Amino acid sequence: MTKYLVLLRFTEQGIKGIKDSASRAHAFKEEAERSGVTVEGQYWTVGAYDGALILSSDDESKVLKTLTGLASKGNVHTETLRAFDEREFSAFSKG
After folding, report:
1. CATH of domain 2-93
2. pTM (2 decimals)?
């Protein structure tokens, strides 16, 4: 499974509806899992980003489609990073 770290920033719309953020996150998790994407973690953060997701899937296009759907709702902007565990990183970092 390929993993992704997704950093989130609320839009103005997202901030106005912040009281609904937890229910939107729950709905996102259900939608993602129906699309073949596992939500391994959802976190709200303090600092430069307002939240983070850890996603995994066997198909990158499923992740991208899921994140496009999330962004189209207008509550968050996303920044997506491909994540590697120690085994994956070691496999290609050994020169």
Report:
1. 3.30.70.1030
2. 0.91
